[in-house]
Amino acid sequence: MGNKFISMMKKDNKDGSKSKRMNRSQRKLLADEEMLHRRALSMAIHQAQISQRFDGSMSRRVGSTSTRKQRTLSDPFSNGKQVPDFSESLIVKKFVLVHGEGFGAWCWYKIVASLEESGLSPTTIDLTGSGFNMTDINTVSTLEEYSKPLIEHLGNLPEEEKVILVGHSTGGASISYALERFPEKISKAIFVCATMLSDGQRPFDVFSEELGSAEQFMTESQFLIYGNGKDKPPTGFMFEKQHMKGLYFNQSPNKDIALAMISMRPVPLGPMMDKVSLTSERYGKGRRFYVQTLDDRALSPDIQEKVVRENSPEGVFKIKGSDHCPFFSKPQSLHKILLEIAQIP
């Protein structure tokens, strides 16, 4: 009896220790996720002026890069390799990075670091209702409203200054719209597995083969958000975490997936259903380049090929082994392509 009691006590102690270990493990996981979140967000705002109030519309890289020489990247994705300083050979040195649906400026943290190490000047934008921009997505009904932070940034550029725009996924719709509005401000537009639109097309149309027709999605999708009540049209959508992991991050590192899971936000539906008016005189004269991701489950390689075929860009680049988020899964390859496009005369 005594031995049995002692055995039960030991079992209880073991269970208690196991519970404590699990609690410690959970706390460590939460702490790691918080660290990852802060790391990415700090990449977007680290060099902002202390006196400048961050209003959520963008995070601007402000440090001088003109004196940078070859340096070794400290980030783990660099593999300790030296990154050449390309700033002397480029006329346009400023990149504006535009995220896709559900993401924010934070998703570019690896690319921001590598571009800066190459002597270039990247700016990351939070579109309306995304990232640090706290606008209620249920109030964002048009692509114009959604793209407002990008348009304001371009409108505030000095008269003779040009930038290279980079848009990911549905961020391609925003840079298409920007090309129509400010063709004189944009040296090149780079679409990264993105919605490179034609006149009269909706951003959602590019995904229709994957998600069904817009009308079907609006009435049948289980991911819809009804911000104005169930009796009103849907105002946004948000995929479930498990669904997002398989759709967007099938080749991305676990730490970046964890970062995305705590950082992604619902997507305003109105801008995705908004038809874009693009003219040959403005949008049509822009220099467009497309980056295809060949292990993409959100926008399949076949659909990306169709986008390129129907709306031919100046150049097409491909990344093998990349999911829908090459800034996570293949940051070195994406960085190399961005530099290569920047150097095209």
What does this structure look like?
Residues 62-79 have a biased composition (Polar residues). Keywords: Hydrolase. One of its GO terms (biological process) is salicylic acid metabolic process. The protein is an alpha/beta fold and 345 residues long. The protein has one domain: Alpha/Beta hydrolase fold, catalytic domain (Rossmann fold). It has 13 helices and twelve strands. The strands form three sheets. Strands 1-5-4-6-7-11-12 form a seven-stranded mixed beta sheet, sandwiched between helices. Strand 11, helix 11 and strand 12 form a beta-alpha-beta unit. Helix 1 (2-45) crosses helix 2 (109-117) and helix 2 (109-117) crosses helix 13 (331-342). The protein is globular, with a radius of gyration of 22 Å.
* Structure summary, number of beta strands: 12
- Proportion of β residues? 5-15%
Order of neighbouring strands in the sheet with most strands: 1-5-4-6-7-11-12
What CATH calls the topology is: Rossmann fold
Tally of separate domains = 1
What value does the Rg take, in angstroms?
A: 22 Å
Shape assignment = globular
What is the terminal separation in angstroms? 87 Å
CATH class designation: Alpha Beta
The topology string of helices and strands comes to HEEEEHEHHEHEHHEEHHEHEHEHH
Number of helices: 13
- Give the biggest beta sheet: 7 strands, mixed
Write down the overall mean pLDDT: 81
Supply the CATH architecture: 3-Layer(aba) Sandwich
